[in-house]
Design a protein that fits this description.
By secondary structure, the protein is an alpha+beta fold. It is built from 2 helices and 4 strands; from the N terminus they run αβαβββ.
Length: 127
Amino acid sequence: MKKKLISIFSFCILLATTSCSDEHKAKTLATDFLDKNMKCDYSSVKVQKFDSTSHIGKQQIEQLHDIMSHDSDFNENIEYASYDNQEKLYYVRLSYQKKSDSSVKKKTIQTFYFDKSRKGIIAFKNQ
């Protein structure tokens, strides 16, 4: 009985550690993307949600690319990771304080989509 409890406890710790690790990797991927592509400064980054979805496809990704190409806070020619019509994408929703030209901070929430390998951001959107 004791071995069974230890095994269950160990599994729960492993599961929690993996989840936190994935969330941290996703946050790092998204903040690296912001550092590379955002024109203004930001601070106070917080993860609001880390999850997966199968409700986004190639057409939606292309629409997000088009929409975000007109966002004045970002560079015009953003380089995205390739998308190969996977069934499931992962995403992380971040909130952060964006500093504008007038030094006023504005709370911003964005969702960043990536594949399981977390090699790069496939698309992102404003909330």
